[in-house]
Amino acid sequence: MKRLLLLSSLCATILCTNAQEQTLVWSDEFNTAGPLNEADWNYEQGFVRNHELQWYQPDNAICRDGCLIITARHEQVKNPNYVKFGGNKPNAPRRRRPDWRQQREYAEYTSASVNTRGKHKFLYGTLEVRARIPVLEGAWPAIWTLGSQWPWPSCGEIDVMEYYRINDVPHILANAAWGNDHNQAVWNSKAIPFTHFTDKDPDWAQKFHVWRMEWQPAYLRIYLDDELLNDIDLTTTVNGTYGGNKNPFHTPQYFLLNLAIGGQHGGEPAPEKYPLRYEIDYIRFYQAK
What we know:
Elements: E1 14-17, E2 20-28, E3 42-43, E4 54-56, E5 61-64, E6 67-78, H1 100-103, E7 106-111, E8 113-115, E9 125-132, E10 139-146, E11 157-166, E12 169-179, E13 185-193, H2 195-198, E14 209-216, E15 219-224, E16 227-233, E17 254-261, E18 276-288
């Protein structure tokens, strides 16, 4: 399944996009079996965002058979950050309720989230990721990017792929977000019902697919198997005062790959159907010469 790089130098592989010659400047082909190369990747740990159910840990990400395999498991892990909270007794000083990450004594699911923050970030170019995603109940896989110049969302977020449920209906999303004057998210979002893909190919979920993000100073374009999902005009993506009235998509972004479970848009998982596998064949980034 895995294709070896045809040329030894990363700078020798060429991609033509809109008649512009681009060169492969960074990739991970996941050809070396075992853990990820920590010179390229960081691991998120514990409960992180969106009230999701999974405990992120490095053990759930492994390279095997030319792919990065992120596995979500139904297993219990004790939360070392748990804070017991029994409410306030009469006449006692009012206590602040612990953050949601501290309220769960145990996690019932584990998974992995990896990113290139502080190791690889890029400004303008073309991102390609070939992957096979899980689509069962509870699964929320993603391919995305973040900036680091301001807090979220003024840092900018590009969701090259999210698979999640809206009113319990599965969709594939292609989004970008930035901040307003109060650092609240402003979204340009396209949500395509999953049936749009499965009506054309009932075996869609059993196959690998290529997500591509073309990022130029004037636009972001997100494709799935060469079908355009979202075309974002970057003249419209300017932060409010909190983000310095700057455009976050004119600053570098780093990459994230993760498989979340449950939370705000993953749906209710069915424990008997776990483990789930999210398989990433490669991630590649091209830039103009």
